[in-house]
Amino acid sequence: MEQTETPRTGILMIAGFGDNASMFDGLSTTELARKYALIPYNTPGFGAPPLDHETTLDALAEALAAEARRTGAKIVLAHSVASITASIALSKDSPLETILSVEGNITADDAYFSGTAANYEDPTEFRTAFLTRLAEKAESSAIFARYHDNVAKADPTALWQLGRDARRFSETHHPGDVLVASGKVSYLYDDPNCPDSTLDWLQSNDIDKRQLTGASHWPSVDAPDLLSTECLKALAAF
């Protein structure tokens, strides 16, 4: 009798502020991709058409939960502010049960990119200022050059609305508490990339932690094999 291969568990991959799923391309040749079905997901406004209503964390969480229902994915690999989106999505009707949070927002200090949108009253003004800031960093960093180019492709209104909502969320919630309460969670990070308040929170809370020593804030870009290894260790520990 011919044996059928057991379907691999799906991992939805959702990018951080202003980025899109291309940031996960480097994972496609890793051990993680051989053992799990990696599903790059472009969120509305960031690689996919924007929503026809306000782009908020909750709205993106609804879209993520819908994608999980469509694909059957049980795990989400969430980068930066997308970790909040994933945390909210796990409370909605979907098969999602596990978050691999890659330097996700833990404290208000983590909104060092997204939160600046609250300082602007106009989407175009914010986009121009943000891209100028990134262009300065891109002059000496290929990692930032890639990020700048992807932010430039994002919908300006969605970028501004999401940033403002991320600031509001961090003022009324503790993102780290929301994350650990959402389901099975592992936090993947390198100390130099994180604010002191986030490092303090990580040391004070019982959460699975995985070090990505030497990686940038975008480890799927510059350290995909290391990220793959640590994700596999985290998943094996659950």
Q: How would you write the strand order of the largest sheet?
A: 2-1-5-6-7-8
What gross morphology would you assign? globular
Task: Provide the β-strand percentage band.
Answer: 5-15%
Q: What separation lies between the terminal Cα atoms? A: 34 Å
Oligomer: single chain
Can you give the helix content as a percent range? 40-55%
Structural Rg: 17 Å
Query: Could you name the ranges where pLDDT drops below 50 across 5 or more consecutive residues?
Result: none
Structural class: alpha/beta
- Tell me the total number of β-strands: 8
- Please work out how many helical segments DSSP would assign: 10
The major β-sheet equals: 6 strands, parallel
Overall residue-averaged pLDDT value: 96
Strand/helix succession: EHEEEHEHEHHHHEHEHH
